[in-house]
Specification:
By secondary structure, this protein is mainly alpha-helical. It has one domain (54-282). 65% of the residues lie in helices and 0% in strands. The protein has twelve helices and no strands. It has helices spanning 2-19, 22-48, 54-76, 83-94, 99-107, 110-118, 124-137, 183-193, 199-217, 221-236, 252-260, 264-282. Helix 7 (124-137) runs antiparallel to helix 12.
């Protein structure tokens, strides 16, 4: 009898699926495909990957080198890399350091501070986009971020380049209770507040704000994946090359499926990558 009920249930599910409009059915297909791929990858990894295998370690190290090269290019806007420094960062990643920790170490270093000091100002377009993106992020935060005058300046104290775990953000003057958000007005206020700030300062501030949003949402993989997919679709409207063809896709379902299958640390870099590339691009106009 139970077997018969199970057959009736499965038959009902199939009929329901066939009755769905094609756009919705295609999205259902996509999510099931992504779920299958995710399970399949986890199963293969748990059974076939030896973390001590020399070939695996070599491939992982090469992957970390390629990732770190991109981080240097979009963060520092330079292809010049000190081999010893670069090697130390790669070793940190190989030993389990997070991408977020390495990123924070770079953007809060004495080298980055010098870039902020020696490159004052940003283009009007870059400043405007910075203000708008910073304001839009407040929609996903429990409280609106307010910044002091010093936040628009280079880092107050130089720091040696080192691994910094966790999210480091500027100290805020206050954390007011969030009310109905006027994005346009807030964006204008942010842009005015950071007039004259270095493009490197703008990138650091916006990047830190993105990290705060992700930290608040990563308790739920689904919530974080949904936010990420919507945010990436929004950034695709800028029509900028973000380094890989798949990153440039405006398909929200694709980005949702991808985010569900990777670590939140990887989502952090993909989000930071878009912040830096976008402001870099519009600061050249």
């Amino acid at each position: 009898m139970k077997k018969f009920r199970g057959i009736i249930f499965l038959g009902g599910v199939c009929l329901l699926y066939l009755a769905l409009p094609r756009p919705i059915a295609k999205r259902v297909d996509f999510y099931f495909d992504q779920l299958f791929v995710h399970w399949w990858k986890k199963d293969r990894q748990s059974h076939s990957v030896d973390v001590n295998d020399p070939d695996y370690l070599k491939k992982r190290s090469l992957m970390h080198q390629e990732l770190l090269q991109e981080v240097y290019r979009v963060v520092f806007l330079s292809k010049k890399i000190k081999k010893i420094e670069f090697g130390n960062w790669v070793d940190s990643l190989n030993q389990g350091a997070s991408i977020e920790g390495v990123y924070n170490g770079l953007t809060h270093s004495s080298r980055y501070r010098e870039l902020e000091k020696n490159n004052p100002g940003a283009t009007a377009r870059a400043l405007s986009i910075f203000g708008r993106e910073l304001a839009l992020l407040q929609k996903d935060r429990p409280e609106i971020s307010h910044f002091s005058t010093s936040d628009a300046l280079p880092l107050s104290e130089p720091a040696e380049v080192e691994y910094v775990e966790g999210t480091h953000v500027p100290q805020l003057e206050e954390q007011p209770v969030k009310k109905e958000l006027d994005v346009e007005r807030l964006a204008d206020n942010y842009s005015k507040h950071f007039v004259g700030a270095s493009i490197y300062t703008l990138k650091r501030i916006l990047g830190d704000e993105v990290l705060k949003v992700i930290e608040e949402k990563e308790k739920s993989n689904q919530e974080l994946s949904l936010w990420y997919s919507q945010w990436q679709k929004h950034f695709s409207e800028y029509k900028i090359d973000y380094g890989l063809p798949l990153r440039n896709k405006s398909d929200e379902a694709f980005h949702f499926g991808w985010a569900r299958s990777v670590s939140s640390d990887r989502i952090r870099w993909e989000s930071l990558n878009r912040v830096h590339r976008t402001l870099n691009y519009f600061n050249k106009e």
